[in-house]
Design brief:
Largest sheet: 7 strands, mixed
Order of helices and strands: EHHEEHEHEHEE
Distance between the termini: 28 Å
Helix content: 25-40%
Bound molecules: coenzyme A
Structural class: alpha+beta
């Protein structure tokens, strides 16, 4: 069984490997989407700006990034125009909550179903639960694999909407609640 080293991203090499994993899992790059897909495309400068504010979590196997879950605190809201309306929606939904956004999660195909997804989120909680009440993200509802994996970790659906890109579930993992 592969041993994953899970922790905070630490430099450009990690960020470049995140971009490579992302590129392989964008919907247009995939033959089919039954095991999920990602929608938002980052760039190295955007990942660097995010990293400077709050490092993302990566899992490495043999020194290479094979999974990631990105940190996007509110200060990153202007970096990606595609996420502007999402951040605005969160202001309405969670006006008093100290939350940050998990901007995208991806596990390399060869490492899926190994528990690494759960380990990424355990690391988010370990590093950031002292500063935030909750971790929030949105998932295309047709991405059933991702919906199920997030529910298993403890995310609950708090809203749903459709835009020109997809139909989305907004999900939150509330660290303060008894269920978490
Ligand atoms: C989505 C993703 C991050 C999940 O990580 P993972 O390691 O594959 O997740 P797991 O295998 O631990 O959990 C998947 C869950 O979906 C279920 N599942 C597996 N294949 C499935 C499928 N084709 N359709 C529906 N559910 C499926 C599993 O049974 C498991 O649920 P369970 O624990 O209730 O039994 C990963 O598959 C991935 O990176 N996919 C491509 C990119 C992506 O979709 N990112 C998320 C964007 S929101």
């Amino acid at each position: 069984m592969t041993v994953h080293d899970v922790g905070l991203a630490s430099g450009d090499a990690d960020l470049e490997q995140i971009l490579a994993l992302q590129a392989a899992n964008l919907e247009p790059a995939l033959g089919d989407t039954k095991d999920g897909f990602v929608t938002v495309r980052h760039t190295l400068p955007i990942l660097r700006a995010m990293h400077a504010l709050q490092p993302s979590v990566v899992a490495r196997a043999d020194g290479r990034v094979v999974a990631y879950a990105l940190s996007m605190p509110k200060e990153t809201r202007t970096l990606l125009p595609i996420l502007t309306s999402f951040f605005a929606k969160l202001d309405e939904l969670l006006p008093r909550e100290r939350f940050y956004v998990m901007g995208q999660v991806c596990v390399d195909r060869a490492h899926r179903g190994t528990g690494v997804f759960d380990a990424l989120f355990a690391a988010h909680r370990e590093h950031y639960a002292s500063r935030f009440d909750s971790l929030v993200t949105e998932i295309a509802t047709r991405n059933v694999r991702s919906m199920r994996a997030h529910a298993r970790v403890g995310f609950e659906t708090i809203a749903a909407y459709r835009d020109e890109v997809d139909a989305w579930a907004v999900v939150a993992w509330r660290w303060g609640s008894a269920a978490s």
